[in-house]
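Below is the data:
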Amino acid sequence: MIVLLLLVPLFLAFEVWQLVISERYLGLKQIARGTDPRPLGPSEAVAFCWSALLILYWLWMITLLVLPAGRVHGAGLLGVSVLGYALRRSVGLRWILVILTFEGAVRLGLLFSLAAAAWMGLD
């Protein structure tokens, strides 16, 4: 269990990185220009790192469901991710950044909560 909770700082940094990347590629400047930023995309190295971390992140969230101490946080993280994905698939380009930002903020809150719960459990 401790090993899984040691990954919380990694995923906190990943969430912040996702918010920065999403602002860069789907930001207000892109929307104001009226261009579709999806063809531009990140470089191959960034895309590989992002995809690899996303897979690791999902596996970690699913693994949290097995642990009694992380079950609620894992379910919350998975629920927010699935709901955010469903909402992003059904809205226009202008709302995607709003949903990504809100979704990232909720996941950051859940990760901070998990980190605090793990810290308090180290007594």
Q: What stands out?
A: The mean pLDDT is 85.
